[in-house]
Amino acid sequence: MTEIKNNPLLSGERIGSYEAIPFDLYKTEHYLPAIDYSLQVAKENIEKMKQNESTPTFENTILAMEESSDLLDHVSTIFFNLMAMESDDEFKALAQEIAPKLSKFSSSIMLDPIIFEKVKYSYDNRQSANLDAEQLRLLEKTYKSFIRNGANLSDEDKAKLTKIDHEMSTLAPLFSNNVLKATNAFELYITEKDELAGVPESALEAAAFTAKTKGKDGGWLFTLQYPSMLPIITYANNRELRKTISDAFGSRAFNDEFDNQEILKKIANFRYQRAQLLGYKNHSNYTLEERMAKTPETVYEFLNKIYDSAMPAAKEEVKELAEFAKKIDGLEQLQVWDIAYYTEKLKKEKFDFEEEELRPYFQMENVLNGIFTVANKMYQLDFKEINNIPVYHKEVQTFEVTTKGKFVGLLYVDLHPRETKRGGAWMTTFRSQGLQQGEIKRPLVAIVGNLTPSTDSSPSLLRLNEVTTLFHEFGHALHALLSDCKYAAMASPNVYWDFVELPSQIMENWVTEKEALSLFAKHYKTGKIIPNEMIEKVKKIHKFQSGMANTRQLGLGYLDMAWHAQDPSNIKDVAEFETSIMEKVRLFPKTEGKNTSCAFGHIFAGGYGSGYYSYKWAEVLEADAFEKFKEDGIFNVETAASFRDNILARGNTKHPMDLYEAFRGRKPDADALLRRDGLLK
């Protein structure tokens, strides 16, 4: 008991009026006891609900369940967030104990006949219960969740489902950890500067700084973190060097000591078995029932529509690139490690454009302040940095977000790579907006990335795609911050996965708009605003190689569906299977020893299984929605208010298409994406 009393995860302590999390008090040994204790509290709360002999109602059943695990949700959310953001091997190992406990608890609720009987009674009598629209939707979603998680199964099948869920709960953390370990295991140490000809001085400076921090005596150290590897892929004249780092990145967790092949096959097979138990043809049919797309057939029809326009364009773009490479270097065969290198040179020839010229205008601090300014002009949000609350790592910044003096939420910003953080970029919440502990809480939100870091002699200067990434994740953050729902389960961004990327992807459009760039794109030395002619070049290259870009995304969407829209038990060889699927979108010769599936964390360790198509789906929505902003003005406050009120604030309180139509006044134009990317014939 003393151990529990002294456990800061359970104390309920929050910092100041923000109710910030006291990260500085938490230690690895606190998590497992805190999970066990909060699980016990949640079980007791559920038992009280079960034993209540009153007629089931929304309040004593649906709301009681919603509030039963507040403490458990708090502890587990912090644990899994930090596992991705700042954790060592000891911390990550806890997931193998914690995840099964949580899975077992969730299954025990969903498969409990007494609880389901109460939920079903509430559902069957919903029309006479005098519920408001949000209560009614939460009730309907809760009932459907029980059905979709086995409430109607026989006892025998419930036992099978529980076993599957238990097994699956340990696999995703293993998959993710293997990718991180494989990423961290690779180092490319160069001691001769001649080998790095063509690589920009900024990248050499960063690599020298990395070598220094790793205890190397001079030289340049490159890793598989994006800011480190991209300059090699894009600029190194040394083709063998490009191949080395390209091969290493493409073979992570494939046929090495961190191999994910058996793990991902288990994940795919368990998902299929689970779907079959629940009466669905496969995992895709199960998943898509709760998506805008609804069916695998719709997804394939959607992907194929883009493919029909993108693939011919991509082939022409590859032909142009190959001819260019042959003309300037006599290259007979383009390989994947040549694409970025010759693309950069081709952009220079066609548009007199070099991306390195942009970086001095994209100092990270200026970009971040620019994003805040954009949000202020659109949504009247103010961001004030605060330095008196604990953070989970010294690099993390925190911002109080307000509107007209009213607290909106707390924003944590964590943008640079470290070995204790998984790769990629994402938004997450430490606390969602909505009803918790008996009152409506405001959200605690984080945006996390692996962007170009500063060195001991240079600030963080971002590439254009990194600026776009930051705007993207900030769009997700706005979705969470501006949520205005009663119940946390309904709050933004807890929406359909093929709708959740709309708020993020639409924000990317502001990156190429002169009105927005003039707010923050200032040369880090001179303070001069980015020249108009450079902005025009950025806009011109926006459609450059759009066929190839779309085809790459389509390939990932097809691969995801291939793993999940069939019985995967016959897939014995991961590499052969992937090769057969990707042949449809292949533009360059296959490279032996590389594999996408083994590091495809989105679908095997995230929530995108049968959902990777969502990125393209949401691009259609955002391309169409941004046309409205372009018509009215990108900072038009009425248009922004409509987007906020009808989409960002509403969460899952209505069907996504209803929300979209309320903003746009009509259904989305399916050709908006092709039109935006110059692919519409």
Description of the structure:
The protein is α+β, with helices and mostly antiparallel strands and 681 residues long. Among the domains are: 2-110 and 112-152, Neurolysin, domain 3 (Orthogonal Bundle), CATH 1.10.1370; 186-250, no CATH class; 261-357 and 546-596, Orthogonal Bundle (Neurolysin, domain 3), CATH 1.10.1370. It is built from 28 helices and 9 strands. It has helices at residues 2-5, 28-51, 58-68, 70-85, 89-93, 95-110, 113-124, 133-148, 155-185, 201-213, 226-235, 239-250, 261-277, 283-288, 296-329, 339-351, 364-379, 464-481, 502-507, 514-520, 532-540, 546-564, 574-582, 601-604, 614-632, 637-648, 656-664, 672-676, and strands at residues 188-190, 220-222, 382-386, 397-403, 406-414, 426-431, 434-436, 439-441, 444-448. Strands 3-4-5-9-6 form a 5-stranded mixed beta sheet. Strands 1-2 form a two-stranded antiparallel sheet. A two-stranded antiparallel ribbon has the order 7-8. Strand 7 (434-436) and strand 8 form a beta hairpin. The mean pLDDT is 95.
